[in-house]
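User: I'm putting together notes for a lab meeting next week and I want to include a structural view of one of the chains we've been expressing. I don't have a solved structure, so I'd like a prediction I can at least talk through. The sequence is below, exactly as it appears in our construct file.
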Amino acid sequence: MKLGISTASFFTKVPTENCFNALREMGVPLTEVFLSSYSEYEKGFVSALKERLTGDLTVHSVHALSSTFEGLLFSQSRRVRDDADQFFHKVCYAGNTLGAKFYTFHGPSALKKSPSMVDVSTFADRFEQLAGIAGTYGLHLAVENVHYCHFSTPDAIRALLKSAPSLWATVDVKHAYYAGYDVMRYVDAAEGKLATLHVADIGKDDSTVLPGMGKLNFEKLLREIDKRKLDPAVIIEVYPSNFTYTEELKNGYKYLKDIIDNL
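Assistant: Thanks for the context. Below is the predicted structure for the 263-residue chain, given as structure tokens.
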């Protein structure tokens, strides 16, 4: 398993265009690029970002600010979908330009009360269509188990991947915890389509903290994943409030690297 840090961890602390230097200074070779606003979807910004992508740093995946448009991709209004498609294409273009292989995707939020088990047939065809668009840019669409979105349970993830076989999965440890499920249930639901593992730790008050600072057993988790012969990119994705100095974030990276190196 390869280990990296998402640029989302620096949100509000370091501008996206400066994150690559911060990661290099920390000795981190892998990242997921979080495009945090509409202007960051534009070709000019992406080109400037590409120029800063030098050395040994590799972009595993891209991730958009999902609330800006991803839910609208599933609108019943053709006009709304068409407008959202334009943003989707821009993020796919960014991923291709930066050399990413995956697009971490939240999909539709569950803003209204709905049954615990999603009617996958309502979404599967559209997901396949979106995966096809991503494929033209050399990307795989990896749906994340976000606890406030429709595909938040292991059963929903399993059913979606079965109904839309072009999809991959991003399993997020903190979202699994907040949804009330053991993270390994999501890993097993994804099976061989597990592209990315988002990691953060959980503190005593159930808030997120840096890896190694909370109560989650990452050694057990990563050994179970390794035992299944899965090889996801392990990407640290914490909130900027979880650390003050980058040295603290680096220590969380070292903590996980030691575990992975000794699997």
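A couple of points you could mention at the meeting. The CA atoms of residues 103 and 141 lie 5 Å apart. The radius of gyration is 17 Å.

User: Perfect, that's what I needed.
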